[in-house]
Amino acid sequence: MRLPILPLLLTLFPIFGWTRKIPDINWISSNPIFDVSNTDHVISVHIGDRVSIKCPKSEPNGKYEYSYIYMVSDEEYDHCFLSKPRLVGACDNQTVDASINIVFRSFTPTPGGFEFQPGKNYFLISTSDGTQEGIDRKKDGLCTTKQMKIKFEVEQDRRGIQNPKFAARTLKKDRDAEQSTPVMYVVHDGNDIDDDDDGSNACSYLVSILFLLASRYLL
């Protein structure tokens, strides 16, 4: 008895949604995307997309731009202040190459993890002033002087349904004794390994196997 492999194969295709790697964002005030003359800081994404925000490298003269990156409300974004922010990551160590890796998911099992819903906007800003002493500023800073802010517009899912598979990976970093804020930054040592690639490879292998089974079924 032959199993209906081909219908099964066609049914599985919608499950494996295509994901995008958004171009890296260099989190430094000299980045042209923060120029007021353009709207490059407004980025459209879909559930399942991912992006890396790269902290700056130390300049030859030892100068470094220090900043905390927060997820905020639209009002905080517009007026460059912090009311109820969530810490996303920190660019506070000039001796390492650090980046914040974000995967846009509509569901995460991680306590305190970031979740993103289609049709909504999410905002990142930095109110630090670029100096080590001014990294804890709660108002203005680089957000005002250099327009360091990003707006993510989460579009509706390509298939018209929400896919809960993907989410922002979070780590915990205690900023003070009273509050622990979820962050999503990792230190790279030159061997950048993306966990999502393993999942993508597994999906590719499964689809290949199903194609082989379908071919044998049709012969």
Offer a quick outline of the entry.
This protein has 219 residues and is an alpha+beta fold. Helix content is 19%, strand content 24%. Residues 20-154 form the Ephrin RBD domain.
Question: What does this protein look like?
Answer:
It is a single chain. With 219 residues, the chain is an alpha+beta fold. It has one domain (19-193): Immunoglobulin-like. The protein has four helices and eleven strands; from the N terminus they run αββββαβββαββββα. A five-stranded mixed β-sheet has the order 2-8-7-4-5. It is globular. The two termini are 14 Å apart. Residues 1-16 and 161-207 have low confidence and may be disordered.
Write a concise keyword list for the protein shown above.
single chain, 219 residues, Immunoglobulin-like, five-stranded mixed beta sheet, four-stranded mixed beta sheet, 11 strands, globular, disordered N terminus, Cupredoxin
Q: How would a textbook summarize the main sheet?
A: 5 strands, mixed
Compute the CA-based radius of gyration.
21 Å
Q: Low-confidence parts, pLDDT < 50 over ≥5 residues?
A: 1-16, 161-207
Mean pLDDT over the full residue set: 76
Number of strands: 11
* Number of domain modules: 1
Which structural class should the secondary elements be placed in? Answer: alpha+beta
Helix-strand pattern = HEEEEHEEEHEEEEH
In CATH, what is the class?
Mainly Beta
* Helical residue percent band: 10-25%
Number of helical stretches of at least 4 residues: 4
Strand order of the largest sheet: 2-8-7-4-5
